Protein: PF03932 family protein CutC
Organism: Chitinophaga flava
Amino acid sequence: MLMSFVLEICANSVASCIAAEEGGANRIELCDNLLEGGTTPSYATIAIAREKVKIDLYPIIRPRGGDFLYSDLEFEVMKKDIELCKQLGCNGVVIGMLTPDGRVDKHRCKELVDLAWPMGVTFHRAFDMTDNPFEALEDIIEIGCERILTSGSRNTAVEGASLLKDLVERANDRIIIMAGSGVRANNIAQLIKTTGVMEYHTSAKAYEDSKMVYRNPNVSMGGIPGVPEYGISLTQRKEVLQIRELAEKALHEMKQ
């Protein structure tokens, strides 16, 4: 059986979408507010991204940061965003809703999946916040999602590698398991060899210095540790290309 590597880039801007495509990504998850885990980007961002890139485009449908327990009003916003993504010609959307007891909200997620059709649907890392990953796996298969983005219920995919391997085996080709969180060029080969996962998700980003000349030393608009005040987060074309090259090298070695 020929193994095929798929690379999805979590892009936070149209510029990042373009860099992802130029680097050889197969698909884009388009997000805003990556520091909150990703929220739904603006209509204009989705529209222009769709105009600029040809690879698959999957905006995240997440009205806010925080948990994945949404109010009825937030649910209405999510449904409207899915309708807009369909109108704009997106290939799919990324969703995830939980119940208060940490299970997949099957009823409302199924409603979103049905609304999204014929677009594809990825279930995002809300999966990692469920109380039973194997039960959640079966629920997500049942509601009709095509893949699950997961770190193996740990902070990073490397830490969750054991569960990722088990999920691939349990899924048994009924749904795609896509590994994300902490995926980098320096660990992609290890992840492929230890988990059997063939789809990977990463931002491949770096902070590029602002072109601002005047910088007021008395005011901070961010103040987030590790995030430069005058840094702009952008997907790096070279990093995307390197991850793909190293992944394909690892697959070639495994086939020999």
In short: The beta strands are 6-11, 27-30, 56-59, 92-95, 120-123, 147-150, 176-180, 199-202, 205-209, 231-235. The helical segments are 14-22, 43-52, 72-87, 106-116, 133-143, 161-171, 188-195, 237-255. The mean pLDDT is 95.
